[in-house]
Amino acid sequence: xxxxxxxxxxxxxxxxxxxxxxxxxxxxxxxxxxxxxxxxxxxxxxxxxxxxxxxxxxxxxxxxxxxxxxxxxxxxxxxxxxxxxxxxxxxxxxxxxxxxxxxxxxxxxxxxxxxxxxxxxxxxxxxxxxxxx
Length: 133
Hints:
Structural class: alpha/beta
Oligomer: single chain
Number of domains: 1
Strand content: 15-25%
Largest sheet: 5 strands, mixed
Radius of gyration: 15 Å
Number of strands: 5
């Protein structure tokens, strides 16, 4: 595994661990992933079924441009869009062009910034190999 892929995986794991429910959070609604009843293990987040929620599709292309839901954005615009998502019922699908190849340095740098922004927003993250377009 490349250094970039390893770094993305580590940041992804950190982002997912930051999304654990906190004390005082309301119980999940029927069909919603969330903590198990008292004393049980939390259930995994179901990325394919975010009830009444939003899945933001974030992409970094081969020229290091950032897209969210098909629109090109700056890093500041991406951070604002992530902050505007409903926090309890949102997830991010992330894709980098040519994910099985080593990213050029500029693309790798932007990818790290994007994944870090997603982690700061405390949104569940799924790395997607297939392009959204």
